[in-house]
Design goal:
Layout lengths: L1 H30 L4 E3 L2 E5 L2 E6 L2 E6 L4 E3 L2 E2 L4 H23 L6 H20 L9 E3 L1
Antiparallel strand pairs: 1-7, 2-3, 3-4, 4-5, 5-6
């Protein structure tokens, strides 16, 4: 009888270890929600969003006005709205992304997906930004 309890305890311990390992591998497999690849440079400082691509630098303000160097870029109301929306998105997501730069979670992936979607709209609508992207997903 004592031997049976020992065998049962050993079986339970082995089973527990297997469950723990499977749980670890499941958590590890889901730990990385997405794999963002960062491109170009952007910053948000004192109400100015700066987009740098190579030697080109664009400044966007919260109202969606865009400047190339010191020159205001002529935009349609639709283009201005797209830039205003993009500014708002970055104003919301940058603090979170910067604070989670070492840990990619679902919210980071959601922000990245929204950013990619808005950047595609910018590329389609504004010729000066046709090659602009700050992030892609692998």
């Amino acid at each position: 009888m004592l031997m049976n309890k020992g065998f049962h305890g050993l079986t339970t311990s082995i089973f527990g270890a297997i469950v723990a390992m499977l749980s670890f591998f499941t958590v590890s497999a889901h730990a990385v929600e997405c794999e963002p690849q960062w491109h170009n440079s952007l910053s948000l400082n004192e109400g100015r969003l700066t987009l740098v691509q190579g030697k080109q630098e664009f400044i966007v303000d919260a109202e969606g006005r865009m400047f190339f160097d010191v020159h205001k870029v002529a935009l349609s109301p639709k283009q201005t709205q797209l830039l205003s929306d993009y500014y708002e998105l970055l104003d919301n997501d940058l603090p979170y992304l910067l604070s989670h730069s070492q840990r990619i979670d679902k919210q980071v992936c959601d922000f990245v997906s929204l950013r990619i979607e808005q950047e595609q709209q910018l590329q389609d609508a504004i010729p000066a930004l046709k090659n602009w992207r700050s992030v892609t997903l692998n």
